[in-house]
Design goal:
- The complex is a heterodimer of chains A (199) and B (542).
- Chain A is mainly alpha-helical and 199 residues long.
- Chain A has a single domain, classed as Cytochrome c oxidase, subunit III, four-helix bundle (Four Helix Bundle (Hemerythrin (Met), subunit A)), CATH 1.20.120.80.
- Helices cover 86% and strands 0% of the residues of chain A.
- Chain A is elongated and about 60 Å long.
- A two-stranded antiparallel ribbon of chain B has the order 1-2.
- Chain B is an all-alpha fold.
- Chain B is globular.
- In chain B, helix 2 packs parallel to helix 5, helix 9 packs antiparallel against helix 10 and helix 14 packs antiparallel against helix 15.
- Chain B has a domain of 150 residues.
- Classes of the chains: A mainly alpha (199), B mainly alpha (542).
- At the A-B interface, helix 1 and helix 6 of A face helix 7, helix 8 and helix 9 of B.
Chain lengths: 199, 542
């Protein structure tokens, strides 16, 4: 094997190890969520009614779409169409921004209603709702940071595809970025029902 | 012996190799695993010295009439000592220094599989260390919570907790990426013929440790982030006034921090397993059992965290289960000890400095391990919890185990890393002073704790005076020994005799290289036909 093959095979293994650490990172939060939901079922129910399901669904659709576009981007590159691939990656980045914009509207609306940690309105509500919103901001916030990182990573990939430093023969960086992006998508697939749908 | 030569035909040691960058940049931008190992070593040696000084100040403080610290300063001192030692020294030391330097060589690879990621982990490590140091001097002062950052105190105290725990988060990221690099390297870069069961046992130690680093560290990451968010925004997840449960913090903290002690000890055990066969001139006894026991310790050890919480209000059922699992994890540890003893049996023993450290490792680790069972049993724990017994136990395991393992590794690989040999008689004397001082220092702590001296107190009742004096004197002896160790190694580095390629007669791959190795470890990747400890077959080829 030469260095490039090493890097390729290694990158395949490394990214899966990295993804498992991300799942465990969020796992700590899912653990807290389960415990507190178990202890405060009524308050969590009330909390989730405060969230806007339409916007949540919209964001879910956006994220699933950009998981598709990034996969198409990888497929296009592997079939030797770097230009098409670049378009798909660009579309993914655009969707990611769309997600964050919707999220910003959601958060702003909640802030308007005084539903943020340490706000007098929230403090006057039952303890369980405080926990619900504490976890809501923590989990969607951490997820949002991952989306931001994803935008950064995919932008680098976009430039590299356009410059031809990621090629059909050496697609590992784009493949791995795509896997990371699917992870970001998948975490949202869990967050969405936990906060918006289960009532 | 294959000589390393450049294209101009002359052999150049790795630290004189002229790469892409000149001068200091050739180190700061190094992707050579050996140089990165040394970068880590310089940092860790600095942190270790700092934390030792803090420890000595605390021991002076415990001498009657020498209360040189205010209670608040004492709280900050034991916290800093703990944070530096745990997160900046003991967790990273063996994997990052010796894992980096030797793991690729031991498996016949060219380098770590992700050399640039490897350098990045060092920068993360330094960044985390700088943050931790900054937190001491700014934003309310040095953390006084103990290295465990228990809520609710860590949420209420006015000192700079957010920055300190964020530093731990960054250090955790560094540790995770190192773990990923090690696991992937072991899977992908073994030389032809280097099956998993032909790997030296130190590699098994690094490998098992790396899995724990990957699987456990994210949990401390998220826990530390939650503490930061709690401090900055009051999200409430650990705050009882908002419905949060402090006990959950303890669970999350120990889900990582108990496996972390296996991150500390496993690589040291691996190195010890390499050292005994070499100095007994005999194949290791029970190779597979030692390899599997590393994995067993790593996996069962991940399920015992609740034994830190017997008196925290977890359920009795949980306590019984955690206690049972704690006793279970003693089994693979004991398997290793018996295998090391059996390796020496009827061996042709060569008493050299690394061997002495390895022997004392067994002695001290056994005391540390057995006293761990006192603490892991439910009812004695009620008496011993949060006493000096815990401090004694922990230091016997971590300093006596990991620390002596680290010292063994340093003395074993020093000639290979530097190309020089230290003064052996001096190092034996230094070892003796450290060993004797260590026991005078830490053994009284078992008695103090048994009699009820609580840990983390800056003062004590009169009946504890004598034992505290003994412990303090022991600490001074031990530190004097450590200084002698350092001087001896420094003198060896500057003025030592030139080391041979294989001064100990080892049969693992690093000894087939010149001392020190060249920039490219192997001119040609070797083909492995024999086990790592088959000394009789050594001459017939690699």
């Amino acid at each position: 094997m030469n260095d490039r093959e090493d890097a390729h095979a290694g990158g395949r293994v490394g990214i899966w190890l990295f993804i498992s650490t991300e799942i465990i990172l969020f796992g700590g939060l899912f653990l807290l969520y389960s415990m507190y939901r178990l202890k405060n079922p009524v308050d969590f129910h009330a909390g989730s009614l405060e969230l806007n399901r339409v916007l949540g669904t919209l964001n879910t659709v956006i994220l699933i779409t950009c998981s598709l576009t990034v996969a198409l981007g990888i497929a296009a590159l592997e079939r030797g169409r770097p230009k098409q691939s670049a378009w798909f990656v660009a579309a993914t980045i655009a969707c990611a921004f769309g997600f964050l914009i919707v999220k910003a509207f959601e958060w702003t609306a909640k802030f308007h209603h005084g539903l943020y940690p340490n706000a007098p309105v929230l403090l006057s509500l039952p303890k369980g709702e405080n926990l619900f919103f504490g976890l809501y901001y923590m989990m969607t916030g951490l997820h949002g940071i991952h989306v931001l990182v994803g935008i950064g990573v995919l932008s680098v990939m976009l430039v590299r595809v356009l410059r031809g430093t990621i090629t059909p023969g050496n697609p590992i960086y784009l493949v791995n970025s795509g896997l990371y992006w699917h992870l970001v998508d998948m975490i949202w697939i869990f967050l969405f029902p936990l906060f918006y749908l289960i009532t | 012996m294959p000589e390393q030569v450049t294209h101009t035909g002359e052999y150049v040691p790795y630290f004189l190799h002229k790469g892409k960058y000149p001068g200091a940049l050739s180190w700061l931008l190094a992707t050579d695993h050996k140089r990165i190992g040394l970068l880590y070593m310089v940092c860790i040696a600095t942190f270790f010295s700092t934390a030792v000084v803090i420890g000595v100040i605390m021991r002076i403080n415990m001498l009657p009439g020498h209360a040189i610290l205010t209670p608040q300063q004492y709280n900050a001192a034991f916290t800093l000592h703990g944070i530096i030692m745990v997160f900046l020294v003991v967790i990273p030391a063996v994997p990052t220094i010796f894992g980096n330097f030797f793991l690729p060589i031991l498996i016949g690879g060219r380098d770590m599989i992700f050399p640039r990621l490897n350098l990045f982990t060092w920068y993360l490590f330094v960044f985390g260390a700088v943050l931790a140091m900054v937190s001491v001097f700014f934003g309310g002062g040095a953390v006084d919570t103990g290295w465990t950052f228990y809520v609710p105190f860590s949420l209420k105290t006015t000192v700079n907790v957010p920055l300190a725990v964020f530093a731990v988060f960054i250090l955790g990221m560094s540790s995770i990426l190192t773990g990923i690099n090690i696991v992937t390297t072991v899977h992908q870069l073994r030389a032809p013929g280097m099956g998993f069961f032909k790997m030296p046992l130190s590699v098994w130690g690094f490998y098992a440790t790396a899995w724990v680093q990957i699987l456990a560290t994210p949990i401390i990451g998220i826990t530390m982030l939650l503490v930061v968010m709690e401090r900055l925004f009051g999200i409430g997840v650990f705050d009882p006034s908002k419905g949060g449960d402090p006990l959950l913090y303890q669970h999350l903290f120990w889900i990582y921090s108990h496996p972390a002690v296996y991150i500390m000890i496993l690589p040291a055990m691996g190195v010890i397993s390499d050292i005994f066969p070499v100095f007994s001139r005999k194949n290791i006894y029970g190779y597979k059992m030692i390899a599997f026991s590393s994995l067993a310790i790593a996996s069962v050890g991940s399920l015992v965290w609740g034994h830190h919480m017997y008196v925290s209000g977890q359920s009795d059922t949980a306590g019984i289960i955690f206690s049972f699992l704690t006793f279970l994890v003693a089994v693979p540890s004991a398997i290793k000890v018996f295998n090391w003893l059996a390796t020496m049996y009827k061996g042709s023993i060569q008493v050299e400095p690394p061997f002495l450290y390895a022997l004392s490792f067994i002695f001290l680790f056994s005391i540390g391990g057995l006293t761990g069972l006192f603490l892991g049993a439910l009812s004695p724990n009620v008496q011993l919890h949060n006493t000096y017994f815990v401090v004694g136990h922990f230091h016997y395991v971590i300093f006596g185990g990991m620390g002596f393992g680290l010292a063994a590794a340093i003395h074993y690989w020093f000639p290979k890393m530097t190309g020089k040999m230290y003064n052996k008689p001096t190092s034996v004397v230094a070892w003796l002073i450290v060993f004797v001082g260590f026991n005078i220092f830490y053994f009284p702590m078992f008695i103090l704790g048994w009699e009820g001296m609580p840990r983390r107190y800056c003062d004590y009742l009169p009946q504890f005076t004598t034992l505290h004096q003994v412990a303090s004197i022991g600490s001074f002896i031990m530190v004097a020994g450590l200084v002698l160790v350092a001087i001896n190694l420094a003198r060896g580095l500057v003025a030592g005799a030139k080391a041979e390629a294989n001064p100990w007669g080892g049969a693992t791959l690093e000894w087939t290289l010149p001392s020190p190795p060249g920039h490219e470890d192997f001119e040609e990747i070797p083909v492995i036909t024999r086990g790592p400890y088959e000394f009789d077959k050594k001459e017939t080829g690699v």
